[in-house]
Amino acid sequence: MTDRATPVVELQGLTRTYPGTVPVHALRPTDLTIHKGDYVAITGRSGSGKSTLLHLLGLLDRPTGGRYLLQGQDTARLSDRARTRLRAELIGFVFQAFYLLPHRTVAENVALALMYAGVPRGKRPERVRRALERVGLAARADFYPTKLSGGERQRVAVARALVTEPALVLADEPTGNLDSATAETVLEIFDMLHAQGLTLIVVTHDPVVAGRTRRRLRIDDGRVTEVTESA
Amino acid sequence: MRFLRRIPLPADLAAEVAAGLLVRPGRLALTAAGTVLGIAALVATLGLAATAGNHIVTRFDELAATEVVVQPAHAGEPGEEPAGVLPWDAQTRLERLNGVRAAGTLTKIETGDLPIRSVALEDPLAAALPQTPVLAASPGLRHAVRGELAAGRWFDRGHDARRSRVAVIGQGLARRLNIAQPALRPAVFIGDEAFTVIGILKSAAREATLTDSIILPDGTARDLYGLDHPEKVYIDTAIGAARLIARQAPTALAPHAPDSLVAQMPPEPALVRARVSGDVQAMLVLLGGLSLIVGGFGIANTTLVSVMERRGEIALRRSLGAQRRQIAVQFLVESAAIGLLGGIVGASLGVVVTVAVAAVQSWTPVLAAWLPLAGIGFGALIGLLAGAYPALRAARLEPIDVLRGEG
Predict the structure, then answer these.
(1) Is the CB of B312 less than 8 angstroms away from the CB of A88?
(2) A117: closest chain B residue by CA
(3) A2 is a domain residue
(4) A231 lies in a domain?
(5) Is B12–A121 a contact, with Cβ atoms under 8 angstroms apart?
(6) Is residue A144 part of a domain?
(7) How does residue B386 score in pLDDT terms, banded at 50, 70 and 90?
(8) Can you give the pLDDT at residue B51?
(9) In this predicted complex, what is the ipTM?
(10) b/e sequence A155-185, b meaning 16+ C-beta within 10 Å
(11) Burial of B273: CB neighbours in 10 Å, binned 0-12, 13-18, 19+
């Protein structure tokens, strides 16, 4: 469906300024291209604007200037509805705080993403099973998140992000609430997903996480700079 | 088609709402309690009003609604000579009418100062009895006034035709005359004329004064006291026939001049019912409505708290691709479901209360079938209205506001 030549993400002078008596330049004009299969880390101190960039990439926030082409489609002028629909179809989120519904089983939590993507009920269980297998939690399908360890919870969240087969997975400090040992299990899954061709953007301040990616961006005071472009 | 894609499937919506509500069953019960009380009060109030109203009408049916009294009309001023005349065979004529269960004439006999005694003896020391009415009646009168006998029997057509010297006396009079057992053939004297007491009347539902009277057969009274014509006719009708009989009786009794007779009819039953119900209902319906309003605010408050608590969940759903409309509908349906649940429990409670109160009072419970159903629908409507504002708040929530707060 997607042309290989079309970048997944293409930013052209993308800007986000928070208005006020002293305007805050959360993101200064930025040009950025991310291709299919890229594994990108965005690092920076807190308040540097990395969350803003992630929210812009995830269509949760609107830029004040510039263009954002997602799969070649300009998103800046789209209605809230259309952006929400693109989110359901093209983007998967992994949050620091997991955001699992505590009273729903692991399988139900993963299936939630399919519901909003408009996948018929009958087709959901099979896709949920496959997504849980990819993160190695097929045996936990009927558990409640409260019975899982932190690493397992984050892997459920990863499965939820994957299950809709998104073009782009955005992870916001995915290991921020995990100790280094459990963080490792999550990062191994990211490595595997990258190997399978998934486009992955991770926001982190952890150099260990950033070190595993192929491409690193640094954001300082709203300015994005390329740190490493390997391979 | 694009529109359809944005609306969650009913099954999905139901599953999300059920999961959202069942997480906190205790809170759900407390939230629904206001609606439960309001709907229960409304259903029970209207049900009991209908039940009580029906009860009053039923008791009224028993006596007044089946009673018709026919009297000669007074042509002009009261005290003037009556215009019409009742025939002596009024009972026979009326009994031919369909709908008449019993009929009987009643006539007061002027006996002057004749003393009433059980022994024909001049006893200067005897206490003077109060004025005792002496009445002439046709054999059918007993049933026409719903008379009950304490002992003995009522006179029949034979006594009437033979002009037998028999009498039925009221229980009150019997006590004063020390007469208890008609089987012993006691006598009662009106002046010097002796009558055999054949029965003692315990009560007469339509003419209470009969229990202090001496009642003679028409034939006997006419023979002895020369009565001109009966004074009035009592008719006991089948239920629902009173108005018909009241129209027909004057013609049956005076075919040449039906207008010379007046038939007293029972009042319109429907009016009685409406009056009784209207009084009872107004205030209790008001109370029920009040508790419903309180219940509605309870639902609104809880749903709002729930929206605030679930900001994270809402932000997650939005980031997963839930439209604002889907979020709004979810919370709206949640609060409507609370209202619906309150309506179902409340309507059931109202029915139980109505039946229980009716059972205790030994009334017949009367409950319109639409009433509990309307109660349930009303509960759901209140839930829906109460959820409108919280749902709007949920839909307006910006996911980044929540996510930024977390990071």
Answers:
(1) no
(2) B321
(3) no
(4) no
(5) yes
(6) yes
(7) very high
(8) 80
(9) 0.93
(10) bbbbbbbbbbebbbbbbbbbbbbbeeebbeb
(11) middle
